[in-house]
Amino acid sequence: MLIPKTASWVVRKIIASRELVLQGQVADGTLQTILKSALIGNGFAIRKMYLTLLPQHPKVEWKSLSLQASIHPRYKFILWLALHQRLATVDRLMKLGIQVPPDCAFCGLYRETFAHLFFECAITRQMWYRLCVWMGYRRNIADWNTEVKWACKLAKKRAGLAEISSCAFAMIVDAIWREWNKLRFQNSSLLAAKVLKDIVIQLNIRGQANRRWYDALQGLNAYP
């Protein structure tokens, strides 16, 4: 059914929903069956019908990390872009026709891609490794997907150190991207120790108002 161009927004949505119901009828049974699924007693539940019409998608593995309440929104935005691999790294800029030097802004040894930046590059890998050691994790830093899975496991826990660790992951991703912009467009120089120190200071400031964090931070060194 064609939607009239002169119809109001509400009418257009109602007609579009009708099409969704009819499409769902083929996959899920008769229209009567679909409508019955939205009944509660003798009443019709709009919420249940709405949920029935929602398309079903597989859950992303990084859901726990992106929804981690302890991560400040300022870091969540860059983390969200990184999880979707939508940061404007050199390989993406070139696809858009923007010409930039192809070498990594940090090490200058290899062609820059998202995978190289997180964490194949020796410099960014070392930064994340030092932060992990500071938190008490002596582990080899792997590729981006492996590190995300590791951070996601911690994001599901409520222990103080686990929350600090998932938050630190988001902060190091944001810090790497922020320093990348400085190196690429402002001809700045990287001061890795200062970057890590700033992250630790921010974590300790937030820990003053969180008892679980405060207790966990007492057992860590001053700086990485």
Number of strands: 2
- Portion of residues in helices? 55-70%
- Radius of gyration, in Å, reads 24 Å
Largest sheet: 2 strands, antiparallel
Strand order of the largest sheet: 1-2
End-to-end Cα distance: 64 Å
Strand content: under 5%
Number of helices: 12
- Specify the structural class: mainly alpha
Q: What is the average of the pLDDT values?
A: 87
Uncertain runs: none
Would you kindly provide a brief summary of this structure?
By secondary structure, this protein is mainly alpha-helical. The chain is built from 12 helices and 2 strands; from the N terminus they run ααββαααααααααα.
What can you see in these coordinates?
By secondary structure, the protein is mainly α. It folds into two domains: 9-53; 63-218, no CATH class. The chain has helices spanning 9-28, 31-36, 46-53, 63-66, 73-83, 90-95, 114-120, 122-134, 144-155, 160-185, 192-207, 211-218, and strands at 39-40, 43-44. It has a two-stranded antiparallel sheet with strand order 1-2. Strand 1 and strand 2 (43-44) form a beta hairpin. The longest helix is centred in the C-terminal third of the chain and has 26 residues, at 160-185. It is extended. 25% of the residues are buried. The model has no long low-confidence stretch (mean pLDDT 87).
Keywords:
12 helices; 224 residues; 2 domains; mainly alpha; 2 strands; two-stranded antiparallel sheet
Helices and strands, with pairings:
Elements: H1 9-28, H2 31-36, E1 39-40, E2 43-44, H3 46-53, H4 63-66, H5 73-83, H6 90-95, H7 114-120, H8 122-134, H9 144-155, H10 160-185, H11 192-207, H12 211-218
Antiparallel strand pairs: 1-2
Helix pairs in contact: 5-10, 7-8, 8-10, 9-10, 10-11, 10-12
